[in-house]
Amino acid sequence: MPMNLQVASDTTFAAVKGGSSLLALFAQAGGFQWPILMVLLAGLLTLALAAVRLGTDWHAARRVHALRVESAQVTHLDALLRSSKNSLYRCLLEGMMQVWRNVPVPGALGQESKIVLDTARAVYGRTQRLVGFFSSTAGGLGLLGTLVGIYALFSAQTRDAQTIFAGIAIAIVSTLLGIVVSIILELLEALVHTWTSRYLERAEEWATAVRYRLLVLGGTQKNPL
Asked: Structure pTM?
């Protein structure tokens, strides 16, 4: 009997004898539970870091976001840049202020804010692709466990019910774990993606309001813009 099937057989027998539990169920995956759980932890860590970055950026941007754009003057904007912490909102404001002063081309302010927002989306896009990779890996490991369980079952060449059940357990439980981990990662990624998208949409709306205000100030000061 193959070694992994023997171990799974003993574990399955002990689980059935001692009663069912979540840990006993995991143990029936024939060792595939560990790489699948490692993939889950890696995906959760990646999403947690993305959520922390988003929360940190929002906390740093609160002062800039609280700006009353419709009545802001250039002196207010300059003072805000000097006193605020680094964030997406500050990068938007800083970029547009530089363009407003140095590039007398209509539409240049919109291009600058688009570049900053596209960069922020690209940063989250890398997180999204990484979590997608972890999700696919979990499903692939589950499928691999299915194939190994079926192969071990047929290669054992036995009619022993305990051994047969162990092989089936490896196939089913490993697949179940892979699917569950994949669903968990996809669900959490969808939540983080929703929060990030809303944050970026609000930042884009804020940048539009600032751009309009700068154009008004430019016209007032007879700026070429």
From this structure: 0.82
Residue 177, CA distances (Å) to 44, 87, 170, 199 in order: 15, 39, 11, 33
Cβ atoms within 10 Å of 170's Cβ, excluding its own = 31
Nearest to 112 by CA among 122, 125, 124, 100: 100
CA atoms lying within 13 Å on the CB side of residue 88: 28
DSSP character for 29? T
Q: From CA 120, how far away is CA 189, in angstroms rounded?
A: 17
DSSP string across 39-58: HHHHHHHHHHHHHHHHHHHH
Ramachandran category for residue 222: left, alpha or beta (phi over 0 → left; psi -120 to 50 → alpha): left
| Helix or strand (DSSP H, E) at 217 | helix 161-220
More confidently predicted of 103 and 190: 190
The terminus-to-terminus CA distance of the chain in angstroms comes to 80
Among residues 126, 150, 131, which one has the least CA distance to residue 5? 150
Q: Would you call 137 exposed, middle or buried from its count of C-beta atoms within 10 A (0-12, 13-18, 19+)? A: buried
- Chain segment 98-118, per-residue pLDDT in tens: 999 887 676 888 899 999 999
Please report, as a single letter, which amino acid is at residue 59: H
What does the alpha-carbon distance between residue 223 and residue 211 come to, in Å, rounded to a whole number? 14
